[in-house]
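Quick start: read one record
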Amino acid sequence: MTGAKHAVVTGTSSGIGKAIAERLLADGWQVTGFDIAPASLNGPLFMSTTVDLSDCAAAEAAAREVGAVEAWVHAAGVLRVGALGSLEAADADLMWRLHVQAATCIANVVLPIMAAAGHGRVVLVGSRISAGLPGRSQYAASKAALVALARSWAAEVVSRGVTVNVVSPAATQTAMLDDPERRTEAPKVPPLGRLIQPAEIASLVAYLLSRDAAAVTGQDIAICGGATLPR
């Protein structure tokens, strides 16, 4: 295509993943989107790969097909809620496969290539709920696992010019809020007085992918509108 830097972004059909892809495209990146849903972006610098990220073999194959990239952002996600007494094993399995297993399978391909090249940026989209919240235990567990993965991977590749970080938003204005699987639970608006906007998350991710962020690695960075202030 061009000499543009190349990023893989998962979950680019909507929400946070789409906003991140849009920001990177605006900044001149070449972006390959991994998603099971039809692409909602187009343009000369955008390519779409249809892949079921909950299938480890498929996610790994897609990563191998793309090859060397300068950045990878794992933004694909799903939310299932449930209190004790109504927890569903299938919900936990889906969230684990999409959030954690997919990240692991893609990282197993992408990170060694970055390390060999001597540069690379990885951002995993977590959640401020990873610290725990009633009715969100299964979701929180899968997002908390991303922090452990990121810190472990960061320690492995920090001397090779590769950074790995987590960005953890509070309730964000995306289609996920309208998912019927949320049942009757409304999102908790942060003290800021409004929901986080996907473009705000994309701006933080863009910084973490930049050359200026070379010294930031292994961090879980909240973008929460004050939701984490009470401790």
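The mean pLDDT is 92.
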